[in-house]
Amino acid sequence: DGGITQSPKYLFRKEGQNVTLSCEQNLNHDAMYWYRQDPGQGLRLIYYSQIVNDFQKGDIAEGYSVSREKKESFPLTVTSAQKNPTAFYLCASSDIKGAGYTFGSGTRLTVV
Amino acid sequence: SQQGEEDPQALSIQEGENATMNCSYKTSINNLQWYRQNSGRGLVHLILIRSNEREKHSGRLRVTLDTSKKSSSLLITASRAADTASYFCATDAAGNYGQNFVFGPGTRLSVLP
Questions:
Q1: What is the pLDDT of residue B94?
Q2: Nearest CA of chain A to the CA of B77: how many Å?
């Protein structure tokens, strides 16, 4: 089945650590996105990529980094510079411009 | 910002009733989408409506778009307990094809059995 897979489902980070969230899609979508969702709130865009080897900052990119070396993969690294990383992270992809997004099931990151 | 803003923030209805949620936005758009999110899960795309369309249907869902008022509504008819979820609208700014959609804070719908 085609879809978008995020892993892990739950992730715990110690203070000062970098952690990487995985996002893989087999939908042959060109564009991929990372969003952050805090409790009871909407989604805020962290980074997005429309083609391989290119990505753009979203509204809240500070403390995060991404790469897009393959069309299928768009990993997100939460660096130690992100002071409040506890949140629900959602990855999405889309094909043609303006089409609906397909979302992964999310990764819940908690700082311990 | 063209961010959509859903109204109401929360809605509680009885099973079998209709649920109406509204979305208002600030700038001209190409498309507006509605998504559903069950607690702790990813978002599921429901309907995309383009700026030159006024109404779309999908099963028990009906979406309208009024570009003169910069608003959209999502109607769920004959609601079921399984419709309990948060519903988000997302908009993209006119002229920015391929740019990201901006999501509103959502409406939390509770359908009581």
A1: 60
A2: 23
Tell me the CATH number at B39: 2.60.40.10
CA-based nearest distance A104→chain B, Å? 6
> Taking the C-alpha atoms of B44, A26, A64 and A87 in order, what is their torsion angle to the nearest 10 degrees?
30
> Which residue, among A112, A68, A62, A63, has the nearest Cα to A91 in the 3D structure?
A68
pLDDT tens string A25-83? 999 999 999 999 998 788 999 999 989 999 999 989 999 999 999 999 999 999 988 88
Query: Could you read off the pLDDT of B19-78 as tens digits, one per residue?
Result: 999 999 998 888 899 999 999 899 999 999 999 999 999 999 999 999 999 999 999 999
A48 with B100: Cβ contact below 8 A: yes
Q: How confident is the model at residue B97 (pLDDT cuts 50, 70, 90)?
A: low
The whole domain housing B50 covers 5-112
Question: What are φ and ψ of residue A40, in 5° steps?
Answer: 70, 10
Comparing alpha-carbon positions, the chain A residue that sits nearest to B93 is: A98
Q: Which two tokens stand for residue A76?
A: 């997100």
Please tell me the total count of domains within chain B. 1
B88 and chain A in contact, CB less than 8 A: yes
B89 to chain A, closest Cα gap in Å: 10
Q: Which residues are within 8 A (CB) of B54 and not within 5 positions of it... i.e. 6 or more apart?
A: B64, B65, B66
Q: Which two tokens stand for residue B3?
A: 């961010």
